[in-house]
């Protein structure tokens, strides 16, 4: 997956993590439920004496309202600013003293907190997470400092960066009614008017054991993890968590276009087609076929887009395709590229679409399909190479409304995708009706104001 598509996916989660490359094998996770409604999922992996401990809250930017965008992310920052028993910054200091690392990330669909730690220190970090689930402090001065950090983060990551500006406007144009319209970090005006009481209200509304999932992977005993969870989280009372009302995006009835003018080295274009998300692993065969189609276009070094438009025809400096089908809300299939000298963004747009149209008309050979599916399945399996990667995979599935028990079934369904199914989705979903196109028109770099990253940035 190329840089621009990666930028889009990164824009859907403000996060920071990395994993080690170790051969993984399939393991079955065990699931428990505390009496207060908190789900505990444990996958034992004995390859190294380490543990990934994650707490996922089903509350992301899609749960915000106009005027308070950015709240989920702002609250994530406040989770490190002290509790009844912890001073501001002490949470991170304690994890570091234990020899671990920790961070958090906010997405459109959820907010998650994690620690990677030596296995004997698991109870210590579990105790810390339980403390801030129920005893977070909201100091007005701490909030004032932290919201300034968030505003600087927005300037540094979006307002001063041309590609993130493109994707922010793309989402705001593609989604009219659905809250995916809003950026995770929030609109600047909402950040400027946000109060510490807004953050506390968000915490009181969503941060409850019955709206959280604990995921633990690594060198642990599942039953012992459950006992520790009961000890530290079991006494936290459940809350009446609000029921999210259906927020359906109206049917798009024609192509939408948007242009961003910003200091940049090169022009750029991205096309977003509205396509089905994965809601039912067993029934949603079109979603699996779209996954394979993305891999055919851009799943490996010599995939179709790069081979044709960059290497052979030399009409683009870079091209890409992306489809992330696991989400609480609607999803898009992306095509993007930076044109080479002598090629316009309008021409590249047509050339990108022509590659999908070629599959729609001619299909794909069994040989190519077999090769691409092998690459795609390998990529799915490689996500489990690290202890942390396994925890991420489980958490994302659970937060998106899909059971972690279906993870292996997804791979089986990908293996079963036929050439006819790939051709059918290429024919069905890539017309003008549900397409949004965003184009970057570069301005001179002399107009760009260099700014250092904000102090206190966690991600």
Number of strands: 12
Shape: globular
Query: Radius of gyration, Cα only, in angstroms?
Result: 22 Å
Q: Helicity range of the residues?
A: 40-55%
Major sheet characteristics: 7 strands, mixed
Classification by helices and strands:
alpha+beta
N- to C-terminal distance: 21 Å
Mean pLDDT: 92
Give the CATH architecture of the largest domain: 2-Layer Sandwich
Approximate strand percentage = 15-25%
Question: What can you see in these coordinates?
Answer:
The N terminus is likely disordered. This protein is α+β, with helices and mostly antiparallel strands and 459 residues long. The chain has 2 domains: 231 residues, Metalloenzyme, LuxS/M16 peptidase-like (Cytochrome Bc1 Complex, Chain A, domain 1), CATH 3.30.830.10; 192 residues, Metalloenzyme, LuxS/M16 peptidase-like (Cytochrome Bc1 Complex, Chain A, domain 1, 2-Layer Sandwich), CATH 3.30.830. The chain has 16 helices and 12 strands. Helix 10 crosses helix 16. The protein is 41% helix and 18% strand. A 7-stranded mixed beta sheet has the order 1-5-6-4-7-3-2, sandwiched between helices. It is globular and about 60 Å long. It starts with a helix and ends in a 16-residue tail after the last strand. Pfam families: Peptidase_M16 (PF00675), Peptidase_M16_C (PF05193). Keywords: Hydrolase, Metalloprotease, Protease, Signal, Zinc. InterPro entries: Metalloenz_LuxS/M16, Pept_M16_N, Peptidase_M16, Peptidase_M16_C. This is Pitrilysin family protein.
